[in-house]
Amino acid sequence: MAIADIAAYAHLSDEDIAALGRELDAIRDDVERSLGERDAAYIRRTIRFQRTLEVVSRVLIMVSPSRAGRVAGTAALAVAKSVENMELGHNIGHGQWDWMNDPEIHSTTWEWDMMAVSSHWRYSHNYRHHVMTNIVGVDDDLGFGVIRMTRDEPWQRVHLLQPLRNMLLAAVFELGIALHGIHSERDRLVPDTEKLAEERTALSRKITRQAVKDYVLYPALSLRRWRKTLIANAAANLLRNLWAYVVIFCGHFPDGAEKFTPDVLAAETRGEWYLRQILGSANFRAGRVLAFASGNLCYQIEHHLFPDLPSNRYRQIAGRVREVCDKYGLPYTTGSLPRQYLLTLRTIHKLALPDRFLTATSDDAPETASEKKFRTREPALQAAQG
């Protein structure tokens, strides 16, 4: 099933893992020492671009007399929302720009333009996901509680519906993230029922505020054109949700993004944590425009190794990370965006079925693996060599 012994899976000694950790720490140190005005200018320029694009797109939607103009405005608004969601909200929420000590561009003050409450998300994502990445039963992002992504989760009849669940989750991804965040808050705050009630109220207010902004306020400002504005805003939110879903799923669920059992957390060292991030994440190839549109999450391996380093540096360090992987014989899982997504879809549809209908073993399946797959190969290799 999932990996329980990372060192055995990676064929590395304790000394190798410690050395791996030191080399990755050196990459982090190099970036941290070089942070400066160019990085600060980048994030401020991105904020100006995003806000300008949103204003222009909303004006275009409200005043354009032609269908083509409204379509262009809707597409531009979807891009503005995607940039705000991933390159700004996600990355600022990770604390990537806290070193600037700018009260506006800080993880504790930035509230993003989506239904999720940033403080809820920071706990569920920064802690439960990034610290305990892909650990079955611990990391809530592993299927988001509605999709079976590993055979370690026992099959149930409801999983037959997961192709439909997957489509629904993609369409309402921001709501899924919001509910995911409050689920994590519930686990953290129990039995503090009073505090939990406050957090649920905060979520209700945030969802209401987002709905009023996009589906009441801006349509009302359009006067007689309110229906067209309402449809355009709904379409932009849908496009943003679909894009965020694709980016996130391609970074976590294609073949090569492994899963782990809670055993790996016992006395986990810094090097072992780094190793788990490498084994549990996947990249997709992207040029500068696609990388920017994805919040630089096409570099998901680098992001999981260094979640609080500025995203504009991931391209710079990707080559060094890959060299470290090659040096220690570790996979650097990457591929085109369509390939990574099709592999993810295959796993979603495949694991909708009971295990008895699946081929390969649970320790050597393409969508997941464990250290045990090497044990089954060793006797065959010894016999062939003998």
UniProtKB/TrEMBL annotation:
<dbReference type="GO" id="GO:0008610">
    <property type="term" value="P:lipid biosynthetic process"/>
</dbReference>
<protein>
    <submittedName>
        <fullName>Fatty acid desaturase</fullName>
    </submittedName>
</protein>
<dbReference type="InterPro" id="IPR005804">
    <property type="entry name" value="FA_desaturase_dom"/>
</dbReference>
<dbReference type="GO" id="GO:0016717">
    <property type="term" value="F:oxidoreductase activity, acting on paired donors, with oxidation of a pair of donors resulting in the reduction of molecular oxygen to two molecules of water"/>
</dbReference>
<feature type="domain" description="Fatty acid desaturase">
    <location>
        <begin position="75"/>
        <end position="334"/>
    </location>
</feature>
<dbReference type="GO" id="GO:0016020">
    <property type="term" value="C:membrane"/>
</dbReference>
<dbReference type="Pfam" id="PF00487">
    <property type="entry name" value="FA_desaturase"/>
</dbReference>
<dbReference type="InterPro" id="IPR012171">
    <property type="entry name" value="Fatty_acid_desaturase"/>
</dbReference>
<feature type="compositionally biased region" description="Basic and acidic residues">
    <location>
        <begin position="369"/>
        <end position="378"/>
    </location>
</feature>
<feature type="region of interest" description="Disordered">
    <location>
        <begin position="362"/>
        <end position="386"/>
    </location>
</feature>
